[in-house]
Specification:
Blueprint: E1 2-10, E2 13-26, E3 29-39, H1 46-55, H2 62-70, H3 109-120, H4 123-130, H5 136-152
Antiparallel strand pairs: 1-2, 2-3
Helix pairs in contact: 1-2, 3-5, 4-5
Length: about 160
């Protein structure tokens, strides 16, 4: 189960209402249904969050629910922190989002495309049939990686 919000315009104001939603499986695939309409949760107190979590059957989930509701808006401050629980004690470390960066990025799209073509052409099955031995599946995987490597970096040694 998870929380989903809906924004409703009422005159000049925008009101956010919350629903408790669950996934379920049918013959046509996964569907979602609303379990409960929770209403506007902006003015909830700590006791209200605890009551809601207990009614959902997961009393330890109160802090996560509050965090989810309070951090849904766009333009959140860069200094927001993960919810603190007394059990976490000294393990809590603040994370400042304005100081988080991307370092040493790796490209993966080219390898993904190469392996998709490999599967689409059925080369994995072909190599599994042609190769012999107990580890023919592993050998077919090694062949796929070697071909992807040559496609991605043809001059690499």
């Amino acid at each position: 189960m998870f929380l989903r919000s809906t924004v409703v315009k009422s005159g000049d104001k925008k009101l956010r209402y919350w629903k408790l939603v669950e996934n379920y499986h049918t013959e046509r695939g996964t569907r979602q249904r609303v379990v409960a309409h929770l209403g506007n949760l902006e003015n909830f107190t700590a006791r209200d969050w605890q009551n809601l979590a207990e009614r959902l059957g997961q009393p330890d989930m109160a802090a996560a629910l509050e965090y989810r509701v309070k951090n849904v808006r766009r333009g959140r401050p860069a200094t927001r922190q993960a919810p603190w629980t007394p059990e976490a004690g000294e393990q809590v470390v603040p994370v400042y989002l304005d100081q988080v960066g991307w370092g040493n990025p790796r490209s993966f799209g080219d390898v993904y495309v190469a392996l998709r073509f490999w599967r689409k052409l059925g080369l994995g099955n072909l190599f599994s049939e042609l190769l012999s031995g107990r580890s023919r599946e592993m050998n077919a995987l090694v062949c796929a990686m070697m071909v992807a490597n040559r496609l991605v970096a043809p001059a690499a040694r």
